[in-house]
Amino acid sequence: MEISRRPRRNRRSEPLRALVRETSLSPAHLVMPCFARDGRNLSEPIPSMPGCDRHSVDRLVALARAWSDLGIPAIALFPATAAEAKTADAKAALDPDGLVPRAVRALKDALPHLLVITDIALDPFTDHGHDGLLSPDGRIDNDPSVEVLSAMAVVHARAGADLVAPSDMMDGRVGAIRESLDRAGFQDTGILAYTAKYASAFYGPFRDALGSAPRSGDKKTYQMDPANRREAMLEADLDEAEGADILMVKPGLPYLDVLRELRDRTTLPLASYHVSGEYSMLKAASERGWIDYDRCLLESLVSFRRAGADFILTYGAADAARLLS
């Protein structure tokens, strides 16, 4: 038998495989999501997210330094707000001395080079657990919610956030946030838009971490239907037109088709979020001896890059950075 082409020739050794490898992955492509809480010298494990804790700000600064030393360029900050601070109007979201602004200031004072991304959503601050304000009849009230989100973004920018990341999926919020930031003198503060955020079942451990599950109903009137692909293109066109600097798809692995199509459609940078449920599944299967966590983590992250992500938010960022060093 005569074989004219032998692709295996390019796979016969690791140096040769590395030479022809199409997709790269390095710590520079990773963002570490992390959870801040009130207190001092505290780290509280999250049972549904093995290896992840809620950290007081002082502990978070020390960890961020270690992550930066691994080559991770950015963190995404999420607040585990005390129950007594949660109200129907989410007023704690606008406190200039609240948990997020204090954490941002401490991080930027200690590590000026570290990029700090803050979450712009109301669910950590509402007593009902939704990402927007409720109208008297129980609906998510879009436009008043956008007003609060825009003011929240300015509070974070004033504290020193490099990027604000609206994850709420309210209509028109990117444009309103851009206008508010510019009007307040923060033209250089970027917007990382959660462009295609789906109403996913993979967020469960994250909601455990923040205590942010909705008290009633669900988030399907504002987060996207998992069955829809074309709608993500509409959301991307709107976010780009409204002034987003970076677009993101969330969750990750179940939506690589959406990520790939967006990569072919936009010239803006693209991010993807390897969400809590995806991370926790790897951890749980590894603890049972069913998979090799290290190899599966890196394979997952490479798949995001192969599909078109410029960078990835993943709770395994520090693990991956150590493996890649």
Report the top-level CATH class.
Alpha Beta
Task: Tell me what the CATH architecture is.
Answer: Alpha-Beta Barrel
Morphology call? globular
Distance between the termini: 44 Å
pLDDT under 50 segments (min length 5)? none
Give a count of the beta strands, DSSP E runs of length 2 or more. Answer: 12
- Round the Cα radius of gyration to an integer and report it: 20 Å
Global structural class: alpha/beta
Question: How many structural domains are formed by the residues?
Answer: 1
Mean pLDDT: 95
Tell me the series of helices and strands, N- to C-terminal. HEEEHEHEEEHEHEHHEHEHHEH
The neighbouring-strand order within the major sheet is 1-4-5-8-9-10-11-12
Q: Per CATH, what is the topology?
A: TIM Barrel
Main sheet overview: 8 strands, parallel, barrel
User: For the record, what is the CATH homologous superfamily label?
Assistant: Aldolase class I
User: Counting H and I runs of at least 4 residues, what is the number of helices?
Assistant: 11
Description:
- The chain has 11 helices and 12 strands.
- With 325 residues, the protein is an alpha/beta fold.
- It has one domain: Alpha-Beta Barrel (TIM Barrel).
- The protein has an 8-stranded parallel barrel, surrounded by 9 helices. A two-stranded antiparallel ribbon has the order 6-7.
- A hairpin with a 7-residue loop joins strand 2 (43-45) and strand 3.
- It is globular and about 75 Å long.
- The relative contact order is 0.14.
